[in-house]
Each structure stands twice: as structure tokens, then as C-alpha cells.
Amino acid sequence: MTILLTGCDGYQGWPMLMRLGVKYPDEKIIGVDNFTRRHWVAEVGSWSAIPIYPMDERIESFKEFFKLNNLEFRYMDLRNWSVVDNLIREEEPRTIVHYAAQPSAPYSMIDAEHAIDTQMNNVKSTLNLIHSINKNNLDTFLIETTTMGVYGTPNIDITDELLPVEFRGRKDTLPFPAQAGSWYHWSKVHDANNLLFAYRVYGMNVIDLRLGIVHGIRTEESERDKSLATRFDFDFWFGTLFNRFAAQCVAGFPLTIYGEGGQTRGYISLEDTIRVTELAVEAEKKGYNLINTFLETASVKMVAEKIQEAGKNIGLNVELKSVPNPRKEAEKHYYNPSNEKMFNLGFKSKYDLISSLEVVLKDLSEYKERIVVKKDKFLPKVLREKL
Ligand code: USQ
Questions:
Q1: Residues 107-117, mean pLDDT to the nearest whole number
Q2: Per DSSP, what are the bridge partners of residue 215?
């Protein structure tokens, strides 16, 4: 049997590839990637705070540490229909974990080219997978991590069940409305809709994991050795909130709260994200499944304060700074999403925001200089000039 993982060079992709390798020693685990994440981050002039090894060295190192020879890497552009279809026809994967995507909201907002490339890349890759599974009459489980950002910040509770609606005296249950906040997030709305349609029209087995903001560095496999580390981004475009704030804290840079800081999101650690995906692979749930995937919610300000306190505990003086918000978004709003389905898979958390922080600050301290030399990447050009 074969499991295919797309985006295996990414922040989540590399640890997930190792997790699948360890969990299914008798199966072939194929990871595909075209290294665009490395290029995108270089394009904005930044790098991963933690040095990452070339793919062939990562795989060699995995073999050495785990005494397993079941990981295979294929360099592949998922936008190319014929290469995707050849791979799926030849390998007939029982499961595909689809992580590959341009994942950054700010990067997708740079200009027309970046918005179009983000949507073309993300939507076309998913459509190629869907169509190849269908064309080859496979019973493959297609698991994609979309995003909690599909929902936006509505003034009602967010559910991953169908939403009961009553309008002009008639009732129905409908998918929750999408109110995404960037071209990237809209690319995931399109993906989420296409996945649902693939189930409806082809009966495809689909799991849509709606992921919150992922934080942290370590996973059970990657912590074994530096050569197995995953990337850790902190720049304005590719660093996500918690990770950026942790890097700012270590570098002695003020934590950049955009606007009022009341923006509230769901958070989950990298290790927990890998666990939920692992459980989704194991569950082999037939039909269509949508699962909100986050452990806890917090506002930007709350995250900043937690990091300030954790910094203080290790002798760092951390300043919080409200900067003009470079995004168009609600800075104060209601936010109450559900996440019960994730626990129904059997999920148990290893790191929450607080326990993740201790580890991240400790691990990052070793790479302080790599962050400090790129500290001008914490802010977009327009804000750097204003401040
Ligand atoms: N923010 C700050 N200061 C910063 C950086 C961000 O206040 O220095 C604010 C943003 O304005 C936003 C919130 O923090 O309100 C979260 O920003 P983010 O960059 O951590 O998250 P986002 O752009 O929403 O995207 C990230 C990932 C994306 C994933 C998504 C999950 O890049 O791939 O889908 O988190 S979620 O946020 O639930 O949609």
C-alpha cells in the first residue's frame, strides 16, 4: 500500500512525512514537493530561523535514526496534470495527505501576480488530485488541510456541521458561509467547495481539516536530531502569529500587535496538528468529513501577553507595540468555533500555547543571530518606513 503526501518539504509536511514513515513501516510513503516554499521565502528576502537540510539528506538521516527505508521523495509540480496523473495511476495511493499550498495571506496580497499565482497554484493542484483519483477509479481517501480562515469572523458560533437555516418560512441545512480575509484564504474556500463537490459528484472520500494557526517547532520525530528539523518562519509574509512573536521575543524586537489586537483565532501546535492528521489517516472515514482543527482560541493581545510573561521568566524584557494594521480585518469581534469532532477522532493534545512557548523560546534562542540579521523582515516595507 502507498500513502502520498504533498508538500513534504513544508513546515507541517516534513514532520508528517516522518510520522507516516514511522507509523506505517510496511507501506511506501511517497512525499512530493517542488521546493517553492524555499523560493517564496527567499523571494521576500528571508529564511527559516532554524536551518533546514536538503531533502536527500533529510531522508538519509531519517533512515539512519529510525532504521526505516520506506520514505521516497519525488520532485513534482502538482499543477502539471500529466505528472500528477501518472503518479496516481502508477501508485494507486490508499490515502493522499494534501498539504502542498502557498499558505501565506500577506504574500497573496502583494499584487495581482501573487494573488493569481496563489489561487492558481492551490486550486489547480487540488483539482488535479481530485480528477486523477476519479479518472483512475480509485477509492483513495483525500485529506486536505484547509483553514479556519474559510469562515472569517461571523457574529454567530462557527460549526463544522451543516448550518440550519430558516429563510422566508422555509428551512434547510447548508454549508457554513465563507467570509475569508485574503486571496490565500479564498483559495482555500475554493478548495473546500471543490472537495465537497468531489464527494457529491464522484462519491470521493474526503476529509477537510480546517486548521487554525499552527505554532511550535518540535515533533516526536524532528526533535531527535538537527538534521530532522522542520522550517520555522518569522518574517512578515510567512511567519504566523505565535511563531513570529516568539522570534521577536528572542531577538529583542517589540511584539508587533496589529491595531487593537482583539483579532481572535484558533491555535494548535505543530505536534498536535500532526497527531490530528495521523488520526484522520487512520480513521479512513468514508464519504465527506469536515473537521475544525484547533485546540484553543486566543486574541492577538492574549498571545502577546503570554509570550511577554514567558520571556520575563527567562530574563527577557519583552515590549508590546501596537502598529497600524497592514490588513483589512475586524480588530474586535465575536469568535466561538466548535472543535468537538477533532476529539471524536481520539485526539489528545501534547502542547497547548503555554507548554509550546517554553520549548519554542528555548529552541529558538540557539538561532537568535539568524533572526536578528533578518529583523527588518518582521515588518512590511510600508510599516518599516512609517515607524
Ligand atoms: N497579526 C498581528 N501581528 C503580527 C502578525 C499577525 O497582530 O505580527 C495578526 C493578523 O493581523 C491576524 C492574526 O494575527 O489578525 C493572525 O495572523 P497570522 O499571520 O498568524 O494568520 P493568518 O494570516 O490568518 O494565516 C495563518 C496561516 C494560514 C492558515 C491560517 C489559519 O498562514 O496558512 O490557514 O493561519 S487561520 O488564521 O485560522 O485562518
A1: 96
A2: 269
For residues 264 and 326, what is the distance between their CA atoms, to the nearest angstrom?
A: 16
Domains and CATH numbers, the chain: 2-384 (3.40.50.720)
What distance in Å separates the CA atoms of residue 263 and residue 252, rounded to the nearest whole number? Answer: 24
* Interatomic CA distance for residues 350 and 268, integer angstroms: 10
Atom of ligand 1 nearest to the CA of 241: 20
Q: How far is CA 345 from CA 159, 176, 209, 269, 285, in A?
A: 17, 22, 12, 17, 10
User: Quick one: pLDDT band at residue 299, thresholds 50, 70, 90?
Assistant: very high
The helix (run of H) or strand (run of E) holding residue 245 is: helix 241-251
Reference 242, options 372, 356, 104; nearest CA is 356
Q: What is the pLDDT of residues 60-85, one digit of tens each?
A: 999 999 999 999 999 999 999 999 99
Any ligand 1 atom below 6 A from CB of 301? no
Q: Give 302 Cα–ligand 1 centroid separation in angstroms.
A: 14
